[in-house]
Amino acid sequence: MIETITKINNSVNGVVWGTFGIALLFIAGLIMTIVNKGFQFTHFLHWNKKTIGAIFKDKKITAHTGKEDRSISQFQSLCTALAATIGTGNIVGVATAIILGGPGSIFWMWVMAIVGMMTNYSENVLGIYFRKKGQNGEWHGGAMYYLKDGLGGYKGMKKVGTVLAVLFSLFCLIASFGIGNMSQVNSIAGNMESAFNIPTWVTGIGLVMIASIVILGGLKRVAAVTEKLVPFMAIIYIIGALVIFFTHITAVPAVFGAIFKGAFAAKSAAGGIVGYGFQKAITWGFKRGAFSNEAGLGSSVMVHSSSNVKEPVRQGMWGIFEVFADTIIVCTLTAFVILSTGVVDLETGHMISASEGSGLVGEAFATVFGAFGPKFIAIAILLFAFSTVLGWSHYGATAWQYLFGEKTQLIYKVLFVIVIFFGCTMSLSLAWDLSDTFNGLMMIPNLIGVIALCPLVAKITKNYINRKILGKDEAPMISKYPEYQVDEKELEAED
């Protein structure tokens, strides 16, 4: 029975994350870039000013909402989204891409991130535009809402939109227990055991205790933790990577030379038929890039939709920054650490080290930090993976709420916390493969909705540019629903 499930899963996984899935992700990002006239390029300074540039200048970005207000701040929504995206993929995923696709895979990871910025942007714009308030006053939004009310709003598409919304929610719910929980905590437990000799069951109990305090406290408590944890873990990891960068700064030309050369290599590093190296570089670069920043999967939009922001495009710009921070900054630094420390032959692309995954990155860190290098990576994975668990707990809770109602969310949260212990102590290769598949399956209904609604995204974007950048007098496009629509005067507070 297990063998049959494995074969079926591998077949589905091959379709989802094979040529079809990767091509669909890239095409969607390209379409959204074109219809929005290259917003990530043409308004680069504007979206930087309104995101990272505003964090230290505009207190409204980081200000917490009142106790009665169930929404979270823009900064908290970013940190919670980054908590779910900046995870083991930024360490293990990058190492895997280089091992299997060579240094050139990093170039294609950048390409996927550049177009993925606009996919994530579009998801967030639609998330805010179609979100609704629940009975407890908390905003609920995500792909299921713009599939049902957006795609379903087209003539003859009501049933299609409803079915796709349910499918997306089911895929998200299942994936939350796998890729968002068991696979993450299993990596934590394994690394803590190898680096510090801590038994997996001890790690499991510790994680269950901490997670129950945070997750059972609801989204505002999750957001309160992630807004402190994410900047801390990202800064610590970036500092460590920058120490290696400056230690090996003379290797910069060789590293980037290997990346660009490998991106268009006719043959793989190990030889093979002409074109094989090119194919492997693209495949693994695109695949790891998609897994790292999750643009196109429809996941992070569920927490971005809980922000207290009113303007859809403003939250869309946070989506652009999210992909930029995750892939262009963190993944690039990881790649440089690996490629500059002698574990890869930059001339041929051959692996010199026999290590894999986090072990490869730990070995690279050890060239500068000595025996502390692998321990540093173990701690980084602990923080990265646990933050992913917190972020995905909200994604799964949102899917559960959509399927079973708001009053039953506690059942999901208790189950989610219990599964953490088993994730730490069990061998989960099949569970990982299944969750990998369902995570990818989320992409299909989500991208159908995003592509179908691209004219609306373009219209909302144009409306924002006309009002906020060109100074034209137009009525703002804030929400699909009249009860949530506001006028320009109410939006002035956000500026």
Summarize, please.
This protein is mainly α. It is 72% helix and 1% strand. The protein has helices at residues 2-16, 19-35, 39-42, 44-50, 52-55, 59-62, 74-85, 92-101, 105-130, 143-148, 158-196, 200-215, 219-247, 252-263, 276-293, 301-304, 312-340, 358-369, 372-404, 409-425, 429-452, 454-469, 488-491, and strands spanning 132-133, 139-140.
Question: How would you portray this structure in words?
Answer:
This protein has helices at residues 2-16, 19-35, 39-42, 44-50, 52-55, 59-62, 74-85, 92-101, 105-130, 143-148, 158-196, 200-215, 219-247, 252-263, 276-293, 301-304, 312-340, 358-369, 372-404, 409-425, 429-452, 454-469, 488-491; strands at 132-133, 139-140. It has 495 residues and is an all-alpha fold. It has a two-stranded antiparallel ribbon with strand order 1-2. A hairpin with a 5-residue loop joins β1 (132-133) and β2 (139-140). The chain is globular. Mean pLDDT is 80; it is low at 268-276.
Task: Please give the structural blueprint.
Elements: H1 2-16, H2 19-35, H3 39-42, H4 44-50, H5 52-55, H6 59-62, H7 74-85, H8 92-101, H9 105-130, E1 132-133, E2 139-140, H10 143-148, H11 158-196, H12 200-215, H13 219-247, H14 252-263, H15 276-293, H16 301-304, H17 312-340, H18 358-369, H19 372-404, H20 409-425, H21 429-452, H22 454-469, H23 488-491
Antiparallel strand pairs: 1-2
